[in-house]
Each structure stands twice: as C-alpha cells, then as structure tokens.
C-alpha cells in the first residue's frame, strides 16, 4: 500500500530482531509440550513416538490434586484481596492529593524490585519470631506482597483516566453514592479490575520461592512439581503438568490483556463529523 | 425585588479554598423561569458558585435556598437541580439512549414509557434517531445536546449550565444560543448559565450577574447593564466606555453638581449612587453616543474639541480615537458609516469636535 504513514513503514531490521527475540524466548518453552507427548522417560532426541500416557498418569496422583487445590485456593484468595486492595489504593492515589504521594506509590511498587528470596527469608524470620505457624495462610500473605504492586500497576492507569465529573454527573442525575459506584464507577474501571484479577491469580499460581519458604506440609502446585524433579521417571509427567499450566497461564494473561485493552479503545474523543 | 419572587435565594454566601477566598459575600435572588447568567472573566468564581447550587461544593458560610428549601444539608442527588457540565460528562460506557435515560431509573417507569420519553426529548434537542450512538461517535454540538437532554428529561426546577457553548466553534455556538433560548422558553425551567462571553450573556439572558474576583458587581437586565453600569469595572467589562474623572461639588434634590475634567462644572442625576460632597468619581459615556464633527458645531450644547489620533474602519462603522486636552485617556468614538466615503478621508491630526445628548453622560459609583 502506498498510503502507509511514515511511522508505519515496515522496517526489515526490526522485523528480524523481533523474530530472533521471539525464538529465543519461546523455543525452549515449546520443548516442554513437545516432550510431554514423547513415549520415553528420557528427554532427548530422536523422539520415540506419540503417547498421552503421561497425561493419563497425572490423573492418578492424589498429592497432585491436593497441591492443585491448594494453589487454586491461595491464588483465588490472593487475586480477590490484592485486586480489592489495589482498587482502594488506586482510587486513593488518583482521587486525593495525599501528602508524600510519590513516596507512597514507590513504596507500594517496591516489592517488584526486591528479590523474592530476600522477601521470603525476611517473612519466614518474621513469622517464626512472632510464633505464627507456617500454613497456606502465610503463603497467601507472601503472595499478597508479590501481587499487590501488579494489581496497583494494572489498576492505576484505569483510575487515572477516570473523569471525576462522571461521578458528579451521576449524583446530579439523582443517584446516591452506592448506585453511582455500580452504574458508573465500576463499569468504567471494570476492565482494569478483571485484568488485575487474572494477572494476580496467575502470578500467585506460578509462584515458587515465597511458597517454598512460607509453607509447611501443604504444598502448592509449583512446589509439588519441584519435589517430583528428583525422580527421573516422574519427569515426563512433570512435563505434561507443566504443559497444562503453561496453556492455562497463557490463556489467562492473554485474556487479562484483552480485557485490559477493552474500553481504552473507546475513550471519548470529539467526533470527526464536525457540525451536525 | 421582594423575597417572594426569589426562586433561588443566595444569602451572604462565602467560599474558601484553604485561605483563598473564591466567593466573597454573595447575595442575590434568581426568579422562577428566568434565564439568568453569571458573567465574568475566567477564575472569578462562576463555576464555584454554580457547583454550590448543584451541591458539589458546600458554602463556607451563608445559605442557599431553592424554592424555599434551605440546601445546605441536601446532597447533590436529592437537589431539584440538574447540571450540564463544561465537558458534558457523557458516560462513555453507555449509548445516547442509556445516557439520557440514566436518571429515570428511580422513577420505576415501564420500559415503553421510558423509551417514549427518551424519543420525545431526542426530538426536542433535535437528535432523532441518535439513540444507539456511543459517546465517542458524537460531535461536540451533539454531545452538548445529549447532556442537555439527559438533564432536561428529569424536569428539574433549575438547570445549571457551565459554559456549555465554550467548546463549540463560532457558527455552531450562535446556532446553539438560539436553540437554548427556544428550549428554555418551551420548557419553562429556570436556567442558570455560566459564561465569560459578554455577547453571549447579553444575547441570551433575562438578567445577568457580573462577577469579578469572587464578588458580584451588579445584577441587572442586559440593557440596564449596558446603559447604566453602576461601576467602572462593570462598564469596562461590557462593551467599551469612555471615562472622565470627576469630583462631587454638591448634592441636592437627586442631582449632583460635578466638577469634571475637561468639561468643567455640570449637573447630572445622582441615580442610585451613594456619592456625597467631595467624593472622587467618574462620569461615563458610550462611544456610539458621541457625535463627531469636523467643524465647530453651533449652539451652546457642551462640546469638546480635540485632535483625531486614529481611525479604524470596520465596514458598517468606524472607530475614532480623539485626544482631548485635559483628559488622561483618549476618547473612543464610534460612528455608523451612513455615507459612502464613511470613515475615509479622516486624516489624523486634524481638529474635531465632540457632542452628545444630555442624557448620554451619566455618573458612576465611588471608585
Ligand atoms: N478545588 C479548588 N481548590 C482550590 N482553589 C480552587 C478550587 N476550585 C477553584 N479554585 C479557585 O477558585 C477560583 C475560582 O474558580 P472557578 O469558580 O473555577 O472560576 P471560573 O469558573 O469563574 O473560571 C480560581 O482562582 C480557582 O483557582
Ligand atoms: Mg469555570
């Protein structure tokens, strides 16, 4: 097409770079599903033939199902709580001129840059000092700290774009604060809430280090996988399990991004059709 | 004005933001069914006053009553007023129909009735068939109408409009002015209209409150504001005005004897001014009330002689600046171009004479 704007012109070098980038990033990951269907306990070429035995094998493992349930419980609680807290934080940050606001935001975002292992050890020390027994609750607490920055980072742009006069217009048209929240505020920020929920759930579901330090006998799914790695014959089953997790994680993140982008494309802008 | 026709009564209202006084002791009455404008430069507190009527800001002191009800304890969602916001505040997640029907939920009307009302109001604001459009599929003028329809469908006692035409281009603005006026007459709702555009306020309003620095300078009809401004600030804000410094020599029987610069002693009606002997003040005259003569006029009417400084040709009329000895500022004179040569051929520097009818000159309040 000849009417492609300057900025949209294809750039060959950039395209090659992007291809290499994606290959390096995803080819190792693709080996996991590949070998999960391989009819051999050894992960090596040449492939031995197609089988779904490793998947069938997963069905018979009770500890795995227990670990999955643990991860789901922790993940859902963490997603709900961190998204809820994220909504409150994002609303407070954008609504009120708080003293030391920038410092506060930086403080909330700090866990993003602190290594998980340090946070894990620190929390472990704290818990044992205070005499709190390790359980799924302590795991959830650790995950909450990891997830909150992601929740705030996802929600903040939504709330920043939120026009205060929308709520005033609703009040002006006779709706009290409760109805205003449900008819105006929530529908407008809703894509951000869903995105935050899916993202924090995925992060908690995949998290290993915090869970490693802060759990007792109840393993989460990543811990279960790690425990199985010691046994070479279990390895193909681990690959099968990993493939499933990969697929679900991809689906969730993709969904989160899709929904997060919803609504931002229909930002109000003056129509181009000029006078009516 | 008696208090019985005060539909909206604003009594000694003040508003502080921290230590900054946005509204300073404002009292005024707005009548039922009136098209009332708040006019003033940007930052003078118009929006603040309007938001206090809507309930989004509370007054630091004073009281606002609407239809006899004190409003200080009434939250915005219970007030009998609706507002058209400066940015229109159309809900982006709803289409035009749902935006307009937003306030109808509480009325628990059957669906068909609600639909009917929306279609009716869409016709009223001249947007028939636009119900399914989204907010971002509308032009500025259309959004403005949706905002108007959304507020009007609830039949408020008062409609508040915050510079609703400010974002529109000139042609559309003039068209919307006519429609707003038509609409206000047909629905009979009290409009409180905020604008910084004096022409717009003069065109639309039954009465105008001129504001500056958080104070209300004068509340009057457009013609009274133009013909008899009470202070120099108001006179300056609306149209162009010539001022002459003056001192009160004496006051008797509603007349003032003034010693006016360049004119000497003159008697003028005191009007409502609180002036007394010895006060310094101003007399004023509009540019179009002065007649410009190329030759010394006969008779004994007061005439000023001066020199022509500059001529500006404006098509239908011309503007002259005349310097008069003894006056600080040059005189602004405006004349209709009745004859073909009109404003041309007026060389600057030539001597001219200025005359006016006796009643064109009037005295302003204390400076
Ligand atoms: N929320 C606020 N906090 C502090 N100052 C404000 C606030 N809102 C308005 N002001 C100040 O009050 C004055 C009047 O503002 P406003 O009513 O918006 O003026 P206008 O609508 O006439 O342009 C301005 O000087 C403005 O800076
Ligand atoms: Mg304003």
UniProtKB/TrEMBL annotation, chain A:
One record GO biological process: transmembrane transport
Gene3D superfamilies per record: MetI-like
Domain ABC transmembrane type-1: 68-256
Membrane topology: Multi-pass membrane protein
Keywords carried by this UniProt record: Cell membrane, Membrane, Transmembrane, Transmembrane helix, Transport
Subcellular location per the Swiss-Prot or TrEMBL entry: Cell membrane
Superkingdom assignment: Bacteria
Transmembrane segments: 12-35, 64-90, 102-128, 134-156, 188-215, 235-257
Membership in a protein family: Belongs to the binding-protein-dependent transport system permease family. CysTW subfamily.
Name of this chain's protein: ABC transporter permease
Organism: Pelagibius litoralis
TrEMBL record, chain B:
Keyword Cell membrane belongs to the record: yes
A single GO BP: putrescine transport
Record keyword Metal-binding present: no
Reactions catalysed, as given in the entry: ATP + H2O + polyamine-[polyamine-binding protein]Side 1 = ADP + phosphate + polyamineSide 2 + [polyamine-binding protein]Side 1
EC number: 7.6.2.11
Domain ABC transporter: 8-238
Keywords: ATP-binding, Cell membrane, Membrane, Nucleotide-binding, Translocase, Transport
Gene3D superfamilies: 2.40.50.100, Nucleic acid-binding proteins, P-loop containing nucleotide triphosphate hydrolases
SUPFAM superfamilies to which the protein is assigned, alphabetical: MOP-like, P-loop containing nucleoside triphosphate hydrolases
Pfam families, A to Z: ABC_tran, TOBE_2
GO molecular function: ABC-type polyamine transporter activity; ATP binding; ATP hydrolysis activity
Coiled coil: none
GO annotations of cellular component type: ATP-binding cassette (ABC) transporter complex
PANTHER family linked to this entry: SPERMIDINE/PUTRESCINE IMPORT ATP-BINDING PROTEIN POTA, SPERMIDINE_PUTRESCINE IMPORT ATP-BINDING PROTEIN POTA
Subunit and interaction comment: The complex is composed of two ATP-binding proteins (PotA), two transmembrane proteins (PotB and PotC) and a solute-binding protein (PotD).
Family membership: Belongs to the ABC transporter superfamily. Spermidine/putrescine importer (TC 3.A.1.11.1) family.
Functional note: Part of the ABC transporter complex PotABCD involved in spermidine/putrescine import. Responsible for energy coupling to the transport system.
Listed name of the protein: Spermidine/putrescine import ATP-binding protein PotA
Primary gene name: potA
